[in-house]
Amino acid sequence: RAKERSKPPHYILVLNFYNQNDLFSLFDIPRLAGASIVFLTQSPPPFPTNASFVSFQFVQGSSLCSQDLARISIEKLTTVVILEYHRHDAVLAESDARIVTTMMLLAELRRQRSPSFPAPPLHYVASVQLSTSMEVVRAAAAQQEATATLVLFNELESGALVQIL
């Protein structure tokens, strides 16, 4: 138990939130007490009103823009949730390639911010479109000494992130 208490709080970045009203049903909000959850997207999500013990923040921008990612305290991140890229924006394979691009941008920005003292390793949770992309995304995480939990988009159900975070 003492080990659990000394564990740093979750600092979670959620990317590509597109009006998924049920997203918060995917999180076990009470379990994330003390966490900070930052949403980087084009429009603010509907934050739950009954979760005062979790800090929510909205940053307008794109996960594919390093300037937008740089506005977040990325050196503090513990978890990055990458939801699928909007289907109107990309074909399925391109959506998965954008996940890898985002991971590479985050890794580079973290290296730039903490050259002497590397930031703690990240855990990625990604919604992948194609099962054939899973190994590529896992390899991108391993290259930066991060871990990855991947969920196929069509398998992302209520409660899935409860098990992951």
UniProtKB/TrEMBL annotation:
GO terms (BP aspect)? potassium ion transport
Give the matching InterPro entries.
RCK_N
Question: RCK N-terminal domain spans which residues?
Answer: 35-109
Pfam families associated with the record:
Slo-like_RCK
Q: Under what name is this protein listed?
A: RCK N-terminal domain-containing protein
